[in-house]
Amino acid sequence: MEKNKKIVVGNMKMNLTSKEISTYLKFVNKKITSRRVVICPTSIYVPYFVNQNYFVGLQNIYSEEKGAYTGEISPKQAYSMGISFVIVGHSERRTLFKESDTLIHNKVKAALENHLNVILCIGETEEERSLLKTDVVIKRQIKSALKGLDSAMISKVILAYEPIWSIGTGVIPKKKDIEKTIDYIKGLVFQEFLVEDIPVLYGGSVNEKNIEKLNTIPNVSGFLVGGASTDPEKFLKIIEVAVGR
Ligand code: 13P
Known about the structure:
The protein has 11 helices and 8 strands. The protein is α/β, with parallel strands linked by helices. Helix 5 crosses helix 7 and helix 7 runs parallel beside helix 9. The site of 1,3-dihydroxyacetonephosphate has 14 residues, from strand 8.
């Protein structure tokens, strides 16, 4: 992907039934024809999404190549199915499924070693924000996830800054606060890993109404969209604003 254009990633989470997916696909496959778009459906629906004009990603991955890991999907299996991206370290995985920084690091490494691009999610809780700990939390998450990886590997990582208090709440940080945190993230990745201008997406309550405003943040590389990505018309509007037709 060219680095200087915006990217829109749809994280559909655990939404839509098979019937709803076929309606969704009829619209999306016709209208979304940009290689700047990554759709991450619930994994059982992946085969319906591959081989279109957008990229397909998983919402999660395991760190081992194969074996007795009931319920998991390996990076090698994902790649063999035409998947090119994977979301790692989403706050719902960190919180609800107790994923540790170490596990997240192992997943990032395994995914990169198996030709997948990684969308690494980072972000602070409401409490951490009120204690002014956003930078400290983000620094810990980034340093542990990317520890020991060389710059060629890190160049296949896209960061997604998702303040947890903004996910699914309709509450969005001020534009200048998002800009400041993205600046901090880019500076940190350069300082720690010598990778310049790593792409950083914003995620958290992005929708068809606020996208025009969010799209004016000068250093944002694109958007990670949850709820609004499950509604094809809303998702298309976000794509049109951020990526163009
Ligand atoms: P919402 O867009 O529903 O707030 O979800 C954001 C998110 O978690 C994307 O990964």
